[in-house]
Design brief:
Strand content: over 45%
Order of helices and strands: EEEEEEEEEEE
Largest sheet: 7 strands, mixed
Radius of gyration: 15 Å
Distance between the termini: 40 Å
């Protein structure tokens, strides 16, 4: 199993900044894409930003120029720096990762793919 744990959410005023972190752990052989999604009350979960192992990034139009996704491959961690936050950015933010898992910690081979989600962290933008 591969687990994702998010941190860094909270309450911030409009125009403020927050940085979210998400660390992956478990029997990981390799991680391909890591990313962030969000879900506001009454809405479907939507893609915010993703980053591949090679550093290629993708952003939703609504966050381009304001959010920056980055990752530390050595730490299996992805970050989301959010600037110029707006009330419409209020949502639960979820981390996602996909890649290959291994059957046990010291294994030198993959036992198949994984796709895991974090538990979510609340971001509230309000004055």
């Amino acid at each position: 199993q591969v687990q994702l744990v998010e941190s860094g959410g909270g309450l911030v005023q409009p125009g403020g900044s927050l940085t979210l972190s998400c660390a992956a752990s478990g029997n990981i052989f390799s991680i391909n894409t890591m990313g962030w999604y969000r879900q506001a009350p009454g809405n479907e979960r939507e893609l915010v930003a993703t980053i591949t192992s090679g550093g290629r990034t993708y952003y939703a139009d609504s966050v381009k120029g304001r959010f920056t996704v980055s990752r530390d491959n050595a730490k299996n961690t992805v970050y989301l720096r959010m600037n110029s936050l707006k009330p419409e950015d209020t949502a639960v933010y979820y981390c996602n990762a996909d890649g290959l898992k291994k059957p046990y910690d010291s294994a030198l081979y993959s036992s198949g793919p994984f796709n895991s989600w974090g538990q979510g962290t609340q971001v509230t933008v309000s004055s």
